[in-house]
Specification:
- The chain has two domains: about 60 residues, no CATH class; about 70 residues, no CATH class.
- The protein is about 55% helix and about 0% strand.
- The chain has seven helices and no strands.
- Helix 1 crosses helix 2 and helix 4 packs antiparallel against helix 5.
- It starts with a helix and ends in a 5-residue tail after the last helix.
């Protein structure tokens, strides 16, 4: 079993560990993937993870949050923006710039793939998006920050 498969099984166990979870749906395209998921489900249950496993998950989560400053899950509940700002796409580019230390690449993508009328500087600060965000993200503040990093002022 390769590392990716072990990692996948570990995280499926983490999902099954939650008492509120009764069903885990996983994308499968081959019979081998179905069989792998069945094995993983058979090895999973509430309480199956030990303290070391949970500590590792906590460290990974903390590191991810450190590398990915905007906790946007791309759920799109903030949309539609009344001013058509592409909020999740902007946040994804900002997070990629931070995570991979790739500001120039994200800035290029921002100017190539996000239309001018959808950019962060078009936010009118109406707050409609923040009221809908299940993550509690201060969207308007982050859009200003993204505009500084990715927008025309950054050039």
């Amino acid at each position: 079993m390769h590392a990716g498969k072990r990692c996948s099984i570990f995280f499926v166990k983490r999902v099954w560990y939650q008492p509120a979870v009764s069903l885990v749906l996983s994308g499968m395209t081959t019979l081998a993937q179905v069989e792998q998921n069945l094995v993983s489900a058979q090895q999973s249950a509430v309480g199956v993870l030990g303290a070391d496993d949970l500590a590792l998950i906590g460290r990974v989560k903390d590191k991810y949050r450190e590398l990915c400053p905007i906790p946007c899950t791309d759920c799109k509940y903030c949309l539609p923006c009344p001013n058509e700002v592409a909020i999740p796409r902007i946040f994804a580019l900002y997070n990629e710039a931070a995570m991979y230390n790739a500001v120039e690449r994200s800035r290029f993508a921002y100017h190539q793939w996000i239309r001018e009328e959808e950019r962060a500087n078009c936010c009118l600060q109406c707050g409609e998006c923040e009221a809908k965000c299940p993550q509690g993200i201060t969207i308007m503040d982050w859009l200003e920050t993204a505009d500084v990093l990715l927008g025309d002022k950054a050039r």
